[in-house]
Amino acid sequence: MTDTSASATHTASDFGDVVSLLKPRVMSLVVFTAAVGLIVAPVSVHPFLGFCAILFIGLGAGASGALNMWWDADIDAIMKRTQSRPVPAGKVTAHNAMLVGLWMSVLSVAMLGLAANWFAAAFLAFTIFFYAVIYSMWLKRSTPQNIVIGGAAGAFPPMVGWAAATGGVSIEAWGMFMLIFMWTPPHFWALALFMNDDYTKAGVPMLTVTHGRRTTRKHIMVYTVLLTPFCIGLGFTSIGGPVYFLASLILSVMFLRGAYGLYTRAEETAEADKYIAERRVFKFSLFYLFILFAALLVEEVMRNLSIGLENWPVVI
């Protein structure tokens, strides 16, 4: 009885470690934005095929996470934020992490091609390649602009979702891409401000390490300003509307206010108050993106209801 329980516990732990290898929190954001891209597309998709497409896009995101953990195992072991990840913690070997990432990459791309179309599958393959090779293996350790260029990897999922529905991309898909692409730098630089010691120890050339906190805060302000027209402008496309437009206005003002607060913040603060503002902006940025994509979903529901009411039979 005791041996069987111990074995079951060990198996469950191993499965949990593999799940952690896929970066489930990042995967959830990818799945959500990809699902929005698919749902708001102007082509109806059968619910089962749509579910399969999003599932395989999520698996592709997990594959990217596993490959990233395989490649970054050395620096993950140095940084406090990542020391508990499966590979540096010794729960999964780097070799196995690589195998999981490669097999899931092949599986997700092949199955997306069968469930949706091969254009979307090729797009997913490029997204995995971009995150694992362009960002993780090249940009992350070579330039302080790593997260600016590398942010494209996180901006592709809604385009892949759109492509899964339509077989191509359009101005609306590019609008969702630009929203995430321009959001990524201020989001990650806010994180880097209060995790700077980790990046310094690991030798990762984040902007905070190479140019200092003051310059990083200035860049957050600049990119938040640049983000604003893309955020609001999406409301004037076919997938936007009054709900999204109002949400984009309110959230943009709040994000700009937070970024300006960081920009004007004095470097010398009490230890107890250190990085509170940075953490607040980082957490808000997650809320910001979620609400904007949720607003796009609301707009789609309202459009469908409007069409349904127009077609509703009138009995006189």
Explain this structure to me?
It is a single chain. The chain has 316 residues and is mainly α. The chain has two domains: 22-167, UbiA prenyltransferase (Tetracycline Repressor, domain 2); 170-305. Helices cover 76% and strands 0% of the residues. It contains 15 helices and no strands. The chain has helices spanning 2-21, 24-39, 47-71, 73-76, 94-115, 118-138, 146-150, 152-155, 157-166, 171-194, 196-202, 207-210, 212-233, 242-263, 276-310. α2 (24-39) packs parallel to α9, α3 packs antiparallel against α9 (157-166) and α5 (94-115) runs antiparallel to α6. The model is unreliable at 1-13 (pLDDT under 50). It is an enzyme of class 2 (transferase). Its main location: membrane.
Descriptors:
single chain; 316 residues; mainly alpha; 2 domains; flat; disordered N terminus
- Which structural class should the secondary elements be placed in? mainly alpha
Shape: flat
CATH class of the largest domain: Mainly Alpha
Q: Averaging pLDDT over every residue, what do you get?
A: 90
- Kindly, what is the distance between the CA atoms of the first and last residues, rounded to a whole number of angstroms? 73 Å
Low-confidence stretches: 1-13
Outline the biggest β-sheet: none
The percent range for helix content is: over 70%
Kindly give the count of domains.
2
CATH architecture title of the largest domain: Orthogonal Bundle
Order of helices and strands: HHHHHHHHHHHHHHH
Protein name: Protoheme IX farnesyltransferase
Transmembrane segments: 26-42, 48-71, 92-112, 118-139, 146-165, 171-194, 220-237, 243-260, 281-298
Function: Converts heme B (protoheme IX) to heme O by substitution of the vinyl group on carbon 2 of heme B porphyrin ring with a hydroxyethyl farnesyl side group.
Pathway: Porphyrin-containing compound metabolism; heme O biosynthesis; heme O from protoheme: step 1/1
